[in-house]
TrEMBL record:
<keyword id="KW-0378">Hydrolase</keyword>
<feature type="domain" description="Nudix hydrolase">
    <location>
        <begin position="24"/>
        <end position="167"/>
    </location>
</feature>
<dbReference type="InterPro" id="IPR000086">
    <property type="entry name" value="NUDIX_hydrolase_dom"/>
</dbReference>
<protein>
    <submittedName>
        <fullName>NUDIX hydrolase</fullName>
    </submittedName>
</protein>
<dbReference type="GO" id="GO:0016787">
    <property type="term" value="F:hydrolase activity"/>
</dbReference>
<keyword id="KW-0460">Magnesium</keyword>
<dbReference type="InterPro" id="IPR020084">
    <property type="entry name" value="NUDIX_hydrolase_CS"/>
</dbReference>
<dbReference type="InterPro" id="IPR015797">
    <property type="entry name" value="NUDIX_hydrolase-like_dom_sf"/>
</dbReference>
<dbReference type="Pfam" id="PF00293">
    <property type="entry name" value="NUDIX"/>
</dbReference>
Length: 196
């Protein structure tokens, strides 16, 4: 068995594999959906193991085996927001980051690539494509401006998202922002983060 094979059972799903550091990880495609008023479509969710903790994040999810990053982004838009878009409707990639966080009582890493999609103001997202797992942990979708994101009492991921939304609202300049590694939720045991 290689270090990339799935070891043991997990509630995270089959696309999460154990890496050499002992942490489950996957690659993900995410989309910053902007309307012509400069607002971003975000999802509010929570961890089933920490239902009292909620946060805002972009539409997106894991890249399936054999799927390109763009194809994954388009599929996630369709499934999570009811948006049917074409490849030419996406800009980017505009940003990358590695998010390390606790979810389903596990510390995991998600290597994310972000695209931008622009839609007219007034688009009503649909949750009709949500899976049972998504219905358990996703609470709502909402259009939020950069200022509304900054004023949110809830966490926003990536943490730079308000500034990124503000910068992208006027158009993308072709720059790919690399946010590096963000620790979205520090584990209670520092050795766990180090893979010890």
């Amino acid at each position: 068995m290689t270090s990339e094979e799935v070891v043991g059972t997990t509630s995270l799903g089959p696309d999460w594999v154990v890496g050499p550091d002992g942490m489950r990880h996957r690659r993900a495609a995410r989309v910053i959906v902007l309307d012509d008023a400069g607002r971003a479509l975000l999802v509010r969710g929570h961890d089933a193991d920490q239902p009292e903790r909620s946060w805002w994040f972009t539409v997106g999810g894991g890249i399936d085996a054999g799927e390109t990053e763009v194809d994954a982004a388009l599929r996630e838009l369709r499934e999570e927001a009811g948006l049917e878009l074409a490849r030419e409707d996406l800009e980017g990639p505009v940003m990358t980051r590695a998010g390390i966080f606790r979810f389903y009582a596990e510390t995991c890493r998600q290597d994310e690539i972000f695209f931008v999609a622009r839609v007219p103001a007034g688009h009503e997202p649909s949750d009709a494509g949500w899976t049972d797992v998504e219905r358990d942990v996703l609470d709502e979708m909402r259009w939020l401006s950069a200022d509304e994101l900054r004023a949110q009492p809830l966490e926003v991921f990536p943490t730079a998202l308000p500034d990124v939304v503000e910068a992208l609202a006027g158009g993308w300049d072709g720059t790919v922002r690399h946010l590096g590694v963000e620790h979205d939720d520090e584990p209670s045991d520092p050795e766990e983060l180090a893979g010890a």
